[in-house]
Amino acid sequence: MPGLYFEEFTVGQVFDHPIRRTITETDNVLVTTLTHNPAALHLDAEYMKGTEFGQPLVNSCLTLGLMVGISVGDTTHGTTVANLGWDEVRFPKPLFCGDTIRVETEVLELRDSKSRPDNGIVIFAHRAFNQHGELAGECKRSALMLRKPS
Hints:
Blueprint lengths: L13 E3 L4 E2 L2 H10 L5 H4 L1 H5 L10 H16 L4 E11 L9 E13 L6 E11 L5 E12 L4
Antiparallel strand pairs: 1-4, 2-4, 3-6, 4-5, 5-6
């Protein structure tokens, strides 16, 4: 099991995830259409030629999904009970098809679960950077985690 148990995290711990991901047009179209988002800014290349961006933007739901998903193998795979929420989700730079992202995760907070003594809560900060090292997305995620078996 590659994920870490609650007791194995420390506040300030940073994971530089080795998986990098180049976002394709297919990725963007699939997520956009699967989520029933008809926005031209994700689907209409001709329309976007006339905007300040000049090309379709990557759907922010895809950015968020990759930002969290890439982190799972190193942090919570098999040891998370549930995601409790995502907070402070921001996208300071747009991503475009063909951009490659890398993700880092920082452990911000650890606390006992008041209602579930076999679990603890970890607050993660996830950050996605484009191939130029520019911050393209960030969020805080609260995860209910398993404690180490006795």
